[in-house]
């Protein structure tokens, strides 16, 4: 198992350990928003997917290290048959619970930091979604 999948498993474990809300589907979504699985949930879902890394310039010290910021997209979706306003009323507290669960948590020896969060377009009536982007900074020996 690689570093990315191990970190993803740890993030999922944190989310599952916290009592987000009953009936919330929590899982991995390797293809992100491009996955057909994104809308396969009952009342609400929290999906985690690796969103890539940013690399810093290699340091020309005797240690030969390079910074790496791994990014994780956490998608929060809620469905309410009454409409988008009601779905947003369900999704926003769930987004806040996800941020509370993950921001500052230690994963793989480093702490997750919240980079951004915001509303995403779902294109589905009655489904409202938010995305929170988390970063995990590390240093690689090169």
TrEMBL record:
Q: Which SUPFAM superfamilies match?
A: Phage tail protein-like
Please indicate which superkingdom the organism of origin belongs to. Answer: Bacteria
Name this protein carries in UniProt: Gp37 protein
Q: Which organism is it from?
A: Desulfonatronum thiosulfatophilum
